[in-house]
Specification:
The chain is an all-alpha fold. 59% of the residues lie in helices and 0% in strands. The chain contains 4 helices and no strands. α3 crosses α4 (85-96). The N and C termini lie far apart (87 Å).
Amino acid sequence: MSKDISLKSFNPKPIFGKLLKKYGRHAVFAAIILVLLAYILVVFKISQLANAEPASNQTTANPLAIPKVDQQAINNIQSLESNNTQLHSLFDQARNNPFQE
């Protein structure tokens, strides 16, 4: 009475054949529905992330803190500028009109 149940004796081809005959004409519709559901999930997740507020521990006490620049770096840049005339003209042009490309 005991039957040997193993994967070797299982043949899924007839089962899938019957399902394909019965529901094969709906495969395109099901694929479109799956793509639309994935699209809706992505749009919903983007909407959630776009409206997310930072946690209280992620905010800084002073959001307008001005970064400090090392004085030695400033001196190095100024000495390089004074040594090269082409670079000097670029710095002057950038100071006069910083939005010109």
